[in-house]
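The methods section describes the discrete structure representation at length, but only in general terms. An entry of this sort, consisting of the sequence and the corresponding backbone structure tokens, reads as follows:
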Amino acid sequence: MCFVINLSQPLEPQGPFDIIVHKLSDVIVEAEHDDRSQQLLVNFKKYTSAHPSTVILDPLPAMTQLLDRFVSYRIMNWHICSPPYLEVPSESDLSSIHRAVKEHNLSFPLLCKTRVAHGSLSHEMSLIFGESCLADVRPPCILQSFVNHGAVLHKVFVVGDKHFCVERPSLKNFPAGPCDRKTIFFNSQQVSKPESSSDLNALDEKMPCLPSPRSEALAALVKELRAQLGMALFGVDVIVNINTHTMTVIDLNIFPGYEGVPQFFSSLLDHIRALLDSGAGAADPQGPSSCEPPSASSI
């Protein structure tokens, strides 16, 4: 039997639950400055702590790490090919940003992304082309060396031990190295929508099609990330470097929209059945993460 949980009401009378599938990412982010959201999380944690046999998909601590790009980029930096990056904390001033960019050998252009990796503001990004425009950086944020990838983004959607790869538009190629071009501010969601038509994702020149990431490489990547994250529902943004043809991870996404994945609901139900049949938690079967519950509602 499947139904929606009302988090504003006591959970005990609504249960018991075999499994809770949640997407309380908004509540987790809002809880930093909103008393009501804080209380919802407290109530949810209290219930799940009192019912450890309830399977949580996905565990709250595992989810929380993907809401902070500082944390998720450190995960990406372990054994996964990803572009050089720099964490710019809140207290950074312009001179310290200049110095850090040089010390970390970041190459222009640079992608600037918000620290918070969820919500509408997380899609607001900028492309910075030279040192003179580092004044446009708004900490806290991530600065990441831009990798030319032929305006093609491969969005990998993970559902338990299955994954699906969907091709989307992405930023076009830009000349490597610093230049006097003004900073470009953009919304990544608008650039990478399935039917997006933008000056930012239109290639200026004809170029050969890049190879898609190999299925075996994607499978190995997903297996590695599931083990590291302790999660079953997440997304991975992958590009292919136009110079080296190397598969490169540029972002991790918490419980994505699964747009373009027609098998999502059947795959999710298969994963839930497998979890209930095995009595395992929501994390990777090779290494379930210890846990508290994640947030939000259903089943």
